[in-house]
Amino acid sequence: MKWKKLLPLFLVFMAFLFFGAWIFKTLEETYYVPGEVKISRDLEDIIVAIARQVNVSVPEEEVRAHIEAVRTGRLPISTNGTTTEPYHMDYFDAWFFCITFITTIGYGYITPRTVGGKLFCIVYAFLGIPVTLIMLTAIGRKLGDTNRWVEKKVQKKLPNHPGRIRVVTILIVVLTSVGIFFFVPAIIFTIVEGWNFLDSLYYCFITLSTVGFGDFVSSVNHQSSTYFGFVLYKVIVFLWIIVGLCFLAAVFDLIQEWLKGLKTKVNRNMKDLSVDQFGHLVSRMHVEGGKGLGKITDITKRKKERARQSLSRKNKNPDEETATDGTAGSYIPQEW
What we know:
With about 325 residues, the protein is mainly α. It is about 70% helix and about 5% strand. The chain has ten helices and four strands; from the N terminus they run H-E-H-H-E-H-H-H-H-H-H-H-E-E. The protein has helices spanning about 5-30, 45-50, 60-70, 90-100, 115-155, 160-190, 195-210, 225-270, 275-290, 290-315; strands at about 35-40, 75-80, 325, 330-335. The strands form two sheets. A two-stranded antiparallel ribbon has the order 1-2. The longest helix has about 45 residues, at about 225-270. It is a multi-pass membrane protein. Belongs to the two pore domain potassium channel (TC 1.A.1.8) family. This is KCNK10 protein.
């Protein structure tokens, strides 16, 4: 697929995101019924509650309950409560929710609360996930084609080492992708989100692997910045996710092609082996590990070389079976 054909597909993907965010926001705000909700209490609230009761006689069971809550307080815990306030969802929160939804990351920090929102998610996933996979796969293949073009240029200058060039190329692409899409963003998240570097690196891996546990989510709160900065930050995170997933698709495409070539080479070498040689080499591979595969290649190379040498000798010095009678003391080679 050419880049000109990928552009309309990307535009359809973007329209699908913006339109889906508007529908989801409208459904959630329109059909939300105020009533019993779960009011989150984070770890700080729990500590404050304990501090306020230090000088008050508190039952031991309640103290133990507070301690247990503190131990499991990494994620917010919930208690039942009621509210009559209408539900409001920011449009770009809904937009970011759609991004994480159809890329199958699914952090889970935003979930549909209404029947309409849940039905919408089912239909939206049914249509959006295939479109996203097609787009990411197509862009990944184009990026892989660019890498293959560079690889062919290098092979023309070093024609005797195609296998090594392929391995080195894949390693360079993998290391570059890890540096650009994991370590650099981790440093940025450490600065912007206030996480430590390990948590930031963990978040990058969980996001681009589409696992999406949801224990760390970027671009959620914008109280410390302007709304424009909040939106711009979400757009930057979106671009990081999409470009990162495309590069990972390109890496997987290159690795898949390399494994197919390796499989073809092994199958071709196996055809040149006799049954006895194959049994012997299997036992050697069991003892020596990966060295046995090299033995297979060496034997097939020697057999091919002996066949070429034999054919060359027959062409230069034909025997009685490859000659016909001619004049005395001479022969006429038969045509091959």
